[in-house]
Amino acid sequence: MTPLDKIKQFLTTTSDISLGYSEIIFFDPLKLQDEQIGFSSDSEGNTLVTGNEGDWKEEWIVIANDEMGDPIIIDTSTPQLTVLSASHGEGAWEPFIIADSLDNFQNIISILTKISDNRASPVDLEKNPISNNERQNALNYIKQQNPHTELSFWQDYFENDDEDDGQSGKPWWKFWR
C-alpha cells in the first residue's frame, strides 16, 4: 500500500472531533488534492514547493485543520508517516511532531473521540468537564506512545476545559474501549 493509499484509508475511517472549542476537521479523501491549495500549490495550480527553508515540502500532505486553521500534515518521507502540525500565517512553515506515526495518530484520535463524547460543544463541556485525572492520563498515554511528540499541542487541545469538578477520575482506557 502506498503512503497516499494509507492516508486516504485513514481519512475514510476517521471523523472530525470536537471538544468544547477545540476541533480537528479531517478532509474528504476524494478531495484531498484540492485541499492542498494554499499549501503545496496556489489556486492556479502553481507549486509552492521551492526547496527553500521554511517553504512547504513536497513530501508533506495536509489531511486536516484544527480550529485555528493550522494544518495537520503527514510527512510521507518517513516510513511511519509522521504526523506534524504548524502555525499558518507565520511567513515560514516550522512544523513540529504531534504523533510519531499515522497509526499512533489514529490511536490518539480514538482516545480524543471517546473523551469528547458528551463534550463536543462548550456548553456540553461545561456540564461535563474533564477531570485533571482524565486529562493527565490521556496526555501520559500520548507521550508514552509518541516520545518525539510536541506534547504542548495536545495540552492546548484540552486547554479550553478550565473547569474541573475533579469527580470523574476515570482511567483513560475506559474512554476508548
Describe the protein in words.
The protein has 177 residues and is α+β, with helices and mostly antiparallel strands. It has one domain (1-177). Helices cover 30% and strands 16% of the residues. It has helices at 3-12, 102-116, 122-127, 132-145, 151-158, and strands at 17-19, 22-26, 60-66, 71-75, 82-85, 96-99. Strand 4 (71-75) and strand 5 (82-85) form a beta hairpin.
Brief overview, please?
With 177 residues, this protein is α+β, with helices and mostly antiparallel strands.
Number of domains: 1
Portion of residues in beta strands equals 15-25%
- Catalogue the unreliable spans: 161-177
What is the CA–CA distance across the termini? 28 Å
Number of helices: 5
Largest sheet: 6 strands, antiparallel
Index terms:
single chain; 177 residues; alpha+beta; six-stranded antiparallel β-sheet; 30% helix; 16% strand; disordered C terminus
SSE arrangement:
Elements lengths: L2 H10 L4 E3 L2 E5 L33 E7 L4 E5 L6 E4 L10 E4 L2 H15 L5 H6 L4 H14 L5 H8 L19
Antiparallel strand pairs: 1-2, 2-3, 3-4, 4-5, 5-6
